[in-house]
Hints:
Strands 14-13-12-11-7-10-9-8-15 form a 9-stranded mixed sheet. A 6-stranded parallel sheet has the order 3-2-1-4-5-6, sandwiched between helices. With 343 residues, it is of the alpha/beta class. It has 2 domains: 5-124 and 290-309, 3-Layer(aba) Sandwich (Rossmann fold); 127-284 and 319-337, Dihydrodipicolinate Reductase, domain 2 (2-Layer Sandwich). β9 (214-221) and β10 form a beta hairpin. The protein has helices at 14-25, 39-48, 58-64, 79-89, 103-116, 130-141, 170-173, 177-180, 183-193, 276-279, 290-305, 313-332; strands at residues 5-10, 29-35, 54-55, 69-72, 92-96, 120-123, 147-155, 196-204, 214-221, 226-232, 242-249, 252-256, 260-265, 271-275, 336-337.
Amino acid sequence: MSDEISAGIVGLGKMGIAHLAILNALEGVAVKAVAERQALVRKGLGTVLPGVPSYSDYRRMLERERLDAVFVTSPTALHVSVASDCAESGAAFFVEKPLGLSATECEPLVRRAAELGTVNMVGYCKHYLETFRAAKDLLDGGKLGAPVYVTSHMYVSQLFARGSGWRYKKASSGGGVLNILATHLVDVLVWFFGDVESVSCALKSHYSSEVEDFAHAYLTFSSGLAGPLDASWSVRGYRLPEIEVTVQCEGGVLTVNEDCLRYSSDSDGGQHLLYKQDLFEGVPVYVGGAEYTREDEHFIECVRAGSSPELDVGYGCRVQRVTDAMYDSARSGRTVAVQGGAA
């Protein structure tokens, strides 16, 4: 591998364009090729980055270009197949969340990436957001005592009429608000509290015909902690997606979202409020949020070092199993155990 990391991108939607901008701004990294099915998008890229070849078929890109890393930002249904081809080509890969349509689909990729020793990562960006990192540190530090009960939600004002595009088609998305957006919330809960043991879930479709617009679940963790999760992309008053988690602890209470961290502690009797601006750490380029730059920086560091980050496809499959159990519960009307163990 040369000193400069040669990167490719598969899929030039919102996240593909964001990663392209970030990577080209990072020192020692350059986007050398992209793959995008839409001819109009490829034509537009050619006017902005005339020296970067674009392909209608990502397989041709992998065959013709010598890439150190590939960012997979295609629709969910293509994640596993594209990532698998990247691994076989010898390129490290970064996959946007969720990892795939189901854990069953993802498990062969997890095994093959491990066999090949391929550096890989799944884009659960909340791990790189200041407020959630501070909340995780506070919970792990024990100042508030053991968690007793947790409530959580993910809301955004996105859909109030029949939606169009791959996100609203089950075959290409794997599901609606739960698999596409609330997977971020499931990730945060698994990150904070560990494995989920069982779930019960109800789903409702109002605007969509194939996927769910509302999800409500009750999660029980292996530690014994439990609490409800609520998610919808059809709730008014949320211009941007909001994840909020409130944890009742033996010695206090903590609430965290993208904007701030609030907590009270019995040990000092204080009420504490920290905004993300109070916790902000600079990044070399800001595109949509500092967390996106941080996750890209971390992935590139791992590519250079030849070591996979914690948020690898094995972790992505672990999160997917929780989501799968929610869908199983909604179909059956029963509490469902989350399948555990290594893939």
